[in-house]
Amino acid sequence: MLVRFKTQSLTLAVSGPSMEAYFALAISLGLGLLVGLQREWKVSEIAGIRTFPLIAIFGTLCTMVGEDQLGWMCAAGMVAIAAVLVIANVAKIRAGVFDAGMTTEVAVLLMFSVGCALGVGQTGPAIVATGIAAVLLHWKRPLHGFVVAMTDRDLRSVMNLALIGLVILPILPDQTYGPYRVLNPYDIWRMVVLIVGISMVAYVAYKLLGTRVGAILGGVLGGLISSTATTVSYSRQTKDAPEVSGMAALVILIASTVVNFRVLMEIGMVAPDLLKVAVLPISALLLLMAVECVLLYLPLRKLEAQAADHDNPAQLKPAIVFGILYALVLFLVAAAKELFGDQALYWIAGVSGLTDMDAITLSTAKMFNDNRVDGGTAWRVILVATMSNLFFKAAAVAILGSRKLLAYIILTFGVAALGGGLLLAFWPEIDVSELRLK
Predict the structure, then answer these.
(1) Band of pLDDT at residue 200, cut at 50, 70 and 90
(2) What letter does residue 44 receive in the DSSP assignment?
(3) Please, are residues 333 and 367 in contact by the beta-carbon 8 Å criterion?
(4) How far apart are alpha carbons 329 and 343 in whole angstroms?
(5) Residue 26 has pLDDT above 80, yes or no
(6) Which of 197, 200, 148 has the alpha carbon at shortest distance from 310?
(7) Quick one: how far is CA 19 from the chain centroid?
(8) Do residues 232 and 385 touch, judged by C-beta distance below 8 A?
(9) I need a surface site. Which of 56, 177, 196, 272 has the fewest CB within 10 A?
(10) Contact between residue 287 and residue 234 where contact means Cβ atoms under 8 Å apart
(11) pLDDT: is 438 or 166 the higher one?
(12) How far apart are CA 346 and CA 383, in angstroms?
């Protein structure tokens, strides 16, 4: 739309605003109402359901004054908002009302910035930032309760996680060294961050749920944290209390079943093309073990399971050990493939899978990405490692647990191992090259 004003010596053309501008104002209104609703519900004395939309709209309008003045207008608007906040807080103090918290004030500044972002077309980041702000504002009590409940050990674990992912990873060289050209420090440590991150999320959920963790959820989270540690913990429980052997067997079986899901998740993150080949056979084993879990759960559903004692996975020493193990397995897989062919990979998988599934899974996925191993061999290597891991956990039960628990494990793991053997023998080959093109 173009409006023209004529005078005797001057014609003035004024361009009307586009639909995008009105759209930005509408979103500013909606996002401001969202945060304002939460603050009004919390009875904020600084800003509420009317003030926050006005602030967001103000930020959007500050960007609609021309490109040359946009930065200055946004800066001036931010200063003006800050000055209003200072005046409001001074008035509160004089009235005898003092609140040391600054959450609402920071939310006001954020919503002004959101309005500015909407004005320059950054709609996605503005919406995400507002959603995060609304959630954080509303989760005040759970977040504060979580921090209060943290021990010194938990805080050290958070710092260790930051050290592992935010300090060590960025400074490692992203170059390949050594024979067979497979040892890349950055890639190796990135796998460490991935595994520690998955385990840490499950560990935090386990701690937050506390006594509410039952047999099923305990097994699921135990499989995501460490199925081997879960097996050891519940086996020890049955040594002095054989009557809980059935429930312990259920938790161990669930944790071992979840390992298959964890393997698929790791493959999907590292080698999506391999997942297209591996998802069906590994899911078939997952389904078989899930059916076993259901059949074992039905007669035991009224019993309760005692929670396991998991070590925090975000520790520097275990992370370094896993990094070394992953690098070693990666090197051995590459060397065995080069010197002895695919058959040697199964022996390495059988040995490395005894105590750790992550290293052989990730190393095999990387070898697939580097076109050193075909898809059919890759998923079979991982499946061999899975059955080797079941054997190791059964041996741990035999040493640490009761005879009744061992009977449960021999039966359930035996069926799973039989199913895995049938998959290895009869599952048809799939042409991965066609799947890569898709």
Answers:
(1) confident
(2) -
(3) yes
(4) 15
(5) yes
(6) 200
(7) 39
(8) no
(9) 177
(10) no
(11) 166
(12) 9
If one counts every other C-beta atom within 10 angstroms of the C-beta of residue 260, the result is 25
Distance CA 252, CA 300 (A): 14
Tens-digit pLDDT profile for residues 281-335: 999 999 999 999 999 988 877 666 565 566 677 788 888 888 898 899 988 888 8
Count how many Cα atoms sit within 13 Å of the Cα of residue 219 in the half-sphere of its side chain: 22
The CA distances from residue 128 to 43, 82, 116, in Å, are 24, 23, 14
Beta bridge partners of 6: 11
Q: What is the pLDDT of residues 375-404, one digit of tens each?
A: 999 999 999 999 999 999 999 999 998 999
d(CA 363, CA 188) in angstroms, rounded, equals 9
| DSSP result, 286-312 | HHHHHHHHHHHHHHHTTS--PPP-PPP
Angle between the 103-119 and 67-94 helix axes, to the nearest 10 degrees? 160
Query: What type of residue sits at position 149?
Result: A
Segment holding 180, helix H or strand E: none
- 3 state SS of 50: coil
* CA nearest neighbour of 276 among 390, 426, 434: 434
Look at the block and give the residue holding tokens 């504060």: 144
Amino acid (1-letter code) at residue 199: S
How many whole angstroms from its chain centre is CA 29? 32
CA-CA-CA-CA dihedral for 420, 424, 428, 434, to nearest 10: 100
Average pLDDT over residues 404-419: 94
Whether the Cβ atoms of residue 352 and residue 359 lie closer than 8 Å to each other: yes
Output the pLDDT for position 333. 87
- In the numeric block, the tokens 């021309």 are attached to 66
Distance (Å, rounded) from C-alpha 84 to C-alpha 219? Answer: 54
